[in-house]
Amino acid sequence: MTAALAPISLAELDAAASLQTRIDRKYLVPTRALPALLDALDPGVRALEIDGERVFAYESVYFDTPALTSYLGAARRRRRRFKVRTRTYVDSEQCWVEVKTRGPRGATVKTRLPHEATGRTELDDPAIRFTTGVLDGLLDGPMAPTLVSTYDRVTLHVPATGPGPDSRTTIDTALSWTDADTGRERVLVGLAVIETKTGSTPSSTDRLLWRQGHRPVRISKYGTGMAVLHPDLPSTPWRRVIDRHVG
């Protein structure tokens, strides 16, 4: 899918566009439209390549309190909302516990700590201390796994075309959601989730997507997945995407 793009190593990508604080824009694009999109990318765009591979398997395990504080914070658009997950890079067996919070002007702030991949479905003592410290009083109970998402990801380095930093674009396919308690599963069929991770200025990928008729949508791997698997939960932010694309 990205054979025509020049490669970039992980070290180069992290140095050029680490973007732990960023503006995220998400798009749902039919997988059949991806070849034309990739062909039209800025010539300077490069694809992350590790050991000759460019498509990598990811697994995220999301954690929440018994009252679903994380989910409901997003569903009700609370200012101090957050997500807690373990993120496992399946091919390399590297794992992190990650906390995502809201920064100024809607920016996403991600902080993370190394975690044992074999224990990715639980938060050990260091992970609990880390999570509690980052969230600073937001938790109203112990956290347990609620949702597992898996997908394949291509990551692109997108050079800046004006003031501001370089950015990243990720293309996720074969997205599936699994309920951590019941094992019930739903799959997003025929669609890729494209996410641009930029500074305040939209990237050349954003502008290309707009020219091709794609507009940002509200989709959250955690929020949307929970709403699909638990239709009794409030789901206003993701209802349009669910009704139109997931069903």
UniProtKB/TrEMBL annotation:
<protein>
    <submittedName>
        <fullName>Polyphosphate polymerase domain-containing protein</fullName>
    </submittedName>
</protein>
<feature type="domain" description="VTC">
    <location>
        <begin position="22"/>
        <end position="230"/>
    </location>
</feature>
<dbReference type="InterPro" id="IPR042267">
    <property type="entry name" value="VTC_sf"/>
</dbReference>
<dbReference type="Pfam" id="PF09359">
    <property type="entry name" value="VTC"/>
</dbReference>
<dbReference type="InterPro" id="IPR018966">
    <property type="entry name" value="VTC_domain"/>
</dbReference>
